[in-house]
Amino acid sequence: MLPLRRLGQTELLVSEVGFGAWQLGNGDQWGGMTDALAHKLVHQAIDLGCNLFDTAPNYALSHSERLLGEALQGKRDKVVIVSKFGHQPGGGLDFSADGFWRSLHGSLARLKTDYLDVFLAHSPPMDVLNGQHEIWPALREAQQQGKIRHYGASVDYAHEVRETLQTTDAQVLELMFNVLHQDVRLAFDLVRQHDIGVITKVPLDSGWLSGKYHAQSTFDGVRARWDATEVRRRAACIDDLQWLVSADRSLGQQALAYLLSYAEVTAVIPGIRSSEQLQTNFSSAGLSLSAAQRSMLEQYWNSLTTSGQQLLPW
User: Is the pLDDT higher at 34 or at 148?
Assistant: First the structure.
């Protein structure tokens, strides 16, 4: 079974490796996925001790939420469901209070539940992260109604973490954090101060830190955002990180172990699209890096980005 960690100030105990459901039911990216396989993967994850599932209404045009709701029937009290709002299924953004309520009720219907454990503003503009924005009273009202248990934001950078924690009463953050994207850790002092639950998204840098890509790799779908120059740059980073690999640990396992070595991190949510990938991701649970290894990876990022002044594109 997977180790559990407390999600910050909440009463929730979640598996330290969760299930990122962006790929769930996504038929036009990552090679596609049948509904039957999606259900199977969710059930396999639960059998292995995973209780944390992360989704959003714009994942697979809402099919991710729908499939997750189907697969979790009869198991709702055994799992923690995280969803988000702001990115609409057909494209576009809506962070208005009215849009919030429409998104919440749509997610509840698709997930076949009357509450969400965590509801997050999904990569919003900076003004939305300020506590004066209209979504924050709406989040509190939804919490009072019992439709959500906890709330916060999904963000990518330290300045976004600071704005959220200094101006709102968020209890949970989902952060882009991995070996190649460490900017958010520069705000971990506030995470500790506020006892915030942290879920880390894109923990394997969209597959690069699994070690399966190289300078000649080509991409379609969302990964087509990398041009040839960026592919070569990332491939060079993966070459730099080969010292992490050993006879019994892959680069992917070490990359997840790096994140889990931080007390501020509650859980990682790698994407899953096959049983093999599920098993590999979950095998990282309970692993850790030495203090020296973690320091070396921090120093590597500092050098790579000029101490965060020249960040890699996601």
Answer: 148
Query: Where in 49-196 does DSSP place strands (E)?
Result: 52-54, 80-85, 116-122, 148-155, 172-176
Yes or no: say if 72 and 82 are a contact pair by the CB < 8 Å rule.
no
Structure tokens at 35: 């509904």
Both tokens of 37, joined, read: 């396989």
Tell me what the pLDDT averaged over the chain comes to: 95
Gap between the terminal Cα atoms of the chain: 32
Q: Does residue 192 contact residue 264 with C-beta atoms inside 8 Å?
A: yes
> At 4, which helix (H) or strand (E)?
strand 4-6
pLDDT at site 308: 94
Q: How many CA atoms lie within 13 A of 77 on its CB side?
A: 1
Indicate the Cα dihedral angle 314, 127, 189, 307, nearest 10°: 40
Alpha carbons 283 and 278: distance in angstroms, whole number: 9
Q: What is the SS3 assignment for 122?
A: strand
- Convert the pLDDT of each residue in 113-129 to its tens digit: 999 999 999 999 999 99
Tens digits of residue pLDDT in 215-231: 999 988 888 899 999 99
Q: How far is CA 18 from the centre of its chain?
A: 9
Residue 198 phi/psi, 5° resolution? -120, 120
